[in-house]
Structure formats: C-alpha cells, structure tokens
Amino acid sequence: MTLLRAIEQTFCKLQEPTLEQLKVALQSLDNLLHEVPVYKTEPKQLPYGRNVVYSTKDLEVIVIHIPASEATAIHNHGSSIGSACLVEGTLVNTKYRLDSEGYPVAQTDDYIGSGEYFEAPCQQIHQLSNPFHEPAVSIHVYSPPLRGVTRYLPYSEILDYVI
Fold this sequence. Notes:
Layout: H1 3-11, H2 19-27, E1 49-55, E2 60-66, E3 70-71, E4 74-75, E5 81-88, E6 90-98, E7 104-113, E8 117-120, E9 125-130, E10 136-143, E11 151-152, H3 155-162
Antiparallel strand pairs: 1-2, 2-10, 3-9, 4-11, 5-8, 5-10, 6-7, 6-9
C-alpha cells in the first residue's frame, strides 16, 4: 500500500479527533513514513516547502520541508491541534509565551531527531527551525484544517522596524 492510500484510509475515519487520536493515527503509518520525502516541495513564498497531501473538513495532512539554515515564522495554529513526525533531518522546536505587551518570549528548545513525534496543542506558540546542514522533512496532521494562524514578531524585530 502507498503512503497516500494509507493516509486516506487512516484519516477518513476521524471526525473531530483529539490530539491523542491524531498521534495514534500518524503512528499507525510508521512503516510507510520512509515515503514522506517523495512528497516534499521546495520553498516558494515561504522559507520552507509545504505540501497538503490530504484534506477533509475535519483535518489535513501536510508534508513540511525545512531546508538547512531555515525556519518557520513564530506562529500558533489558530484553533487547530496537531501531531507530527520528523522523517528526515533534525529540527529545533522553540516554544514561546507572550509577554505583557503581547510579544513572544522563547521558553524552551526541544531538539527533534528523525523518527521522533511531536505535538502542537491548541494555541501553542512555536517556531520550527533547522540550524543544521541537512534538510528536514516532516509530516503533520492538523484538526481542524489550519485557519486563523497568527504569526508573531519578536520585540527586537518590531523595534528595528520602527527605528
């Protein structure tokens, strides 16, 4: 069975899934995750490639490709929850909190290696970065599909912009 067929068969059954259900469903694809890099795309408007490989009204599955020395913006996932698996490379998942003025302040850095799973609870603010020399490819599932994502600029970047 191909990865895309397995994704469809696994995720078509889920309606309004929990974070744990998303993770378990993604883990059930473990023996096919070696196929994920086939679906990576190169960056276009963003500093990373993003390919939606499956979508329903309840969830979407996305392959993310973060090249060496690139990162996502600091962001949340709106009202969505997510589970992901890194299938190639290494990433740093920096989690943030907002200060009293609403600017993101880094709290923790989690290093994620190939084959490791990670989660994005509702309203988590984070940034995925690849400060390493090899590309990183991961597969993510979000429920509901991503809408209302907020991007955040750190205070230092706002200050540089204003001055």
